[in-house]
Amino acid sequence: MRYITLLFLAFSTMLSAQTRIYKDTVFNLAFGSNYQFLGTRFLDFGEYEKQDSDCPDDGKFAFLPSSPGCFSNGWLKMNEDHTPGDKQGNFMLVNANFNPGDFMSIPLRQLKASSNYEISFWLANILQETQNCEPLQPNIELRIETRNGKPLTYSKTGIIPWKQNPLWRRYSITFSTGSNPEPLVIRFRNSQTGGCGNDFAMDDVLLVEWEEELPKIKSTPPAPIVQAAKQAIKKPAPKEKVQAAPAVKPDTTASVKNKGKAEKTRPTQPINQRRDNLIQSVELPAGTIELCFFDDSKIDGDTISVYHNGLPIIKQAGLSKKPHCFSFNLSEEEPIHEVITVAETQGNMPPNTALLEVIFQRKRLQFLLHSDESQNARMQFKLKKP
Q: CA separation (Å) from 234 to 121, 141, 241, 361?
């Protein structure tokens, strides 16, 4: 096999400061705008047919900037697509066929040899809760195979649950090419039957090349410098403090327990009570920086709070495949931003592990953030000098 196994939501968990550097974009499928999409000639829709309607029938699809809530409000009303910042941007609205089958296939030209790729896409369940039947929930399968039909690997999103309002969810998978890769086809397959339910919207299908870059370890890491500076202010003789540390060590467990009690009565204080462990200091160009927090790998009940420059921005949020995001502007007026992630709970598999995705100028970086009852995860973002 010339490709390694495809892993759904395949994020590395080996190093806490591992970084994914995104390189060349192979394609970015955003489905056009204002009902117009000229890219259909490059795609194969299997047994599905395009229908110029705001409410496509069974086995049909449409490219729409919005949807009114079709079939006597059996579908949720969609006011816009997922793509941020576009005007009248389209999404692909799919009314499921009665039988499982491919609803979109994308042929790929020959990819680079011995390279890593990620394909990501956004889906929304558009069903309204109904009493007329027990609606099926979408479950989308993605397969990668050769042009002659030889299957390489596949993965499923799992059931995309119903929500009271439209909710876009991001799914991503990674794969690597071998030394002599063949041309491929990416197939999106609706694995459920149609009829009552199993209808969905799709947007922003993106295939990019990436590589892992281990963080550069500086001879004098920033975190110890900051800690040493604080110690010097509090106690003029830091050497005595270091020598006394072994004597205090047996009381660590008790202090952590007391710390946990304090957090229950003062939930906004952990940022001051725990040690801030610097994960990485990153230099980025000026502009809008978006940060999104996911659960890494298996969802096990981790919850976090996030502080931006000392102010709470995300409070006691449960980590899952759905991201918790916020953004800030990196500029000459504000050249340094600090983001601290605090573990509110550690789930079933301590420590608390969050996947941080940093999005800027159509590029993405990823970091694993480990935090627990004794330490927070700190990220620093600096304006890159020209």
A: 51, 58, 11, 42
Residue whose token pair is 């059931």 = 159
Query: Worst-scoring range by mean pLDDT, 188-197, 235-244, 346-355?
Result: 235-244
The structure tokens listed for 362 are 């159509």
- Which residue type occupies 34? N
For the chain, the three-class secondary structure string (H helix, E strand, C coil) is CCECCCEECCCCCCCCCCEEEEEEEEEEECCCECCECCHHHHCECCCCEECCCCCCCCCEEEEECCECCHHHHCECCECCCCCCCCCCECEEEEECCCCCEEEEEEEECCCCCCCEEEEEEEEEECECCCCCCCCECCCEEEEEEECCCCEEEEEECCCCCCCCCCCCEEEEEEEEECCCCCCEEEEEEECCCCCCECCEEEEEEEEEEEEEECCCCCCCCHHHHHHHHHHHHHCCCHHHHHHHHHHHHHHHHHHHHHHHHHHHHCCCCHHHHCEEEEEEEEEECCEEEEEEEEECCCCCCEEEEEEECCEEEEEEEECCCCCEEEEEEECCCCCEEEEEEEEEEECCCCCEEEEEEEEECCEEEEEEEEECCCEEEEEEEEECCC
Contact, 74 vs 57, CB < 8 A?
no
**In the chain, what are the domains?**
7-213 (2.60.120.260), 240-383 (no CATH)
Q: Are 63 and 38 in contact (CB under 8 A)?
A: no
Cα Rg of the chain (Å, integer):
24
pLDDT bracket for residue 165 (50, 70, 90): confident
Q: Residue 271's pLDDT band (boundaries 50, 70, 90)?
A: low
Q: Structure pTM?
A: 0.56
Please check whether residue 123 is in contact with residue 93, taking contact to mean a CB–CB distance below 8 angstroms: no
Question: What does residue 239 show for φ and ψ, rounded to 5 degrees?
Answer: -60, -40
